[in-house]
Amino acid sequence: MHYLSYVSLAVYFIAMLAIGLFAYKQSTSDVSGYILGGRKVSPQVTALSAGASDMSGWMLMGLPGAMFLVGFETIYIALGLLLGALINYLIVAPKLRVYTEVADNALTIPEFFAKRFHAPSSNIRIIAAVIIVIFFTLYTSAGLVAGGKLFESAFGLNYELGLVITLGVVVSYTLLGGFLAVSLTDFVQGCIMFVALILVPVVAYQEFSNADKMMNFAYESIPHFGEAMQNVTLLGLISSLSWGLGYFGQPHIIVRFMAIRCVSDIKMAKNIGMSWMMVTIVGALATGLVGIAYANKFEMKLSDPETIFIVFSELLFHPMISGFLLAAILAAIMSTISSQLLVSSSSLTEDIYRVVSKREATEKQMVAMGRYGVAGVAIVASVLAMDRSNSILSLVSNAWAGFGAAFGPLILFSLYKRNLTHKAAIVGIVSGAATVLFWIYAPVLANGQALTSVIYEMIPGFLVSSAAIWITSALDSEPCENTVDTFNKAGRVLAEQR
User: Fold this and answer.
1) Of 95, 111, 102, 101, which is closest to residue 39 (Cα–Cα)?
2) pLDDT tens, 415-446?
3) 254-266: per-residue pLDDT in tens?
4) Are 382 and 144 in contact (CB under 8 A)?
5) Which residues touch 139 (CB under 8 Å, ≥6 apart)?
6) Could you give the CA distance from residue 401 to residue 384 in angstroms, rounded to a whole number?
7) Crossing angle of helices 109-116 and 251-259, rounded to 10°
8) Which of 24, 50, 209, 485 has its CA at 20 to 30 Å from residue 373's CA atom?
9) For residues 37 and 25, what is the distance between their CA atoms, to the nearest angstrom?
10) Dihedral sign, CA of 337, 250, 306, 457?
11) At what angle do helices 392-416 and 422-441 cross, to 10 degrees?
């Protein structure tokens, strides 16, 4: 690796730490500032922060790698994600922004669930927080695996050392600046990812005289487009598209909607966010497709398909640009890890420590506890990430399904069902999470495989949770009058702000 590439990366690291220091001075004196940036985040930062925290290392490594291995079937995952993100902006973002503020200024998703039922210290708050910590620890480990692979592949460093470097930088600015640091760094990182995912496939395509020749080389390894589309089974199609269902329950994404300045800014955030997402997903798929053709044309052996973006960065660009592109991968990895660490920390402090301890703590003490939480989750995730054989996309898909099934149906019911009951909410969370875990790990098929080999665990988890919420609410007694009043008030405030 040329020294100029190291210079580019060093500049990137310094910039991220500088943003963390700036945010530390601006917004971390109280819990609201540390967790939600004081609900003053602009639509531009909201959009790119939501996108960057969503499209983690799997965007530049996992998705191109899936296209490289499987081919055009990967497009269905992309379509599911685009549809899910759009619907999330339309039906979740406005109501969640208003409802969390009306519900006694709820700062976290578990706190919102509890305050929606006027039970701030209820079991649902702790259950939701525990699920967040468990699945985000798994999710964070996926980002660290990507960081370790990056430093090993690009710099020839030891995998474990690369993991530690990734962890060290992202934990530093998250500890310092909280939500504002995470959002601002996500904005910068989103811009870097946007440029990189246009630049890499376009430059790699220049190695071919025309599109037909490129596709002929690609078809040496993957089925033709028409054949691939016809060969997809119904269950395979549903599994791929169902990734979009996960958006409704991803705490690190929907918390961005809670922090935006006002409801009227959501439309602008949607337009920016969906445009960014469309371009970056197409760029990621194109990187994988051109990568197949390039590998076949030049008889290049690639031991790990998830490193095709890294290989292009090193082979096709000037060292300074190469360093910038590698920084784009780090940007994707770090933006998601930082968001997950902060949400996990928020749940540990606000929803577990504050509820269980029942002790009054100052704002300064709670912020300090939040920083301890960031460090604790990071350490556990790094231990899990030491297994370098883990697939980035596989780890992400498991955690994505866990959140989507546990929280997605409940978020929708909480925002749109007036007579939702506290008991139904608890049953929905537990049944959704349990179904996903059973689907992933229970070896119930004849060959010892789990049910996830048949259909993506998101689908049964989401359906079971939805059915459990609906049936339990129907059988349970009506919610208290205060709960209904808060629901109605949120509807009136939303109508006024629109």
Assistant:
1) 101
2) 999 889 999 999 999 999 999 999 988 888 87
3) 888 998 988 999 9
4) yes
5) 336, 340, 395, 396, 399, 400
6) 19
7) 70
8) 50
9) 12
10) positive
11) 160
pTM here is 0.83
pLDDT tens digits for range 93-129 = 999 999 999 988 888 888 899 888 887 667 888 898 8
Q: Which residues pair with 41 in a beta bridge?
A: 260
> Terminus-to-terminus CA distance in the chain, angstroms?
53
What Rg, from alpha-carbon coordinates, does the chain have?
22
d(CA 125, CA 351): 6
Structural domains of the chain sorted by starting position, each given as residue range(s) with its CATH number in brackets: 3-394 (1.20.1730.10)
Structure tokens at 61: 């490594």
> Which residue reads 């704002």 in tokens?
363
Unique residue bearing structure tokens 């395979």: 236
260 forms beta bridges with 41
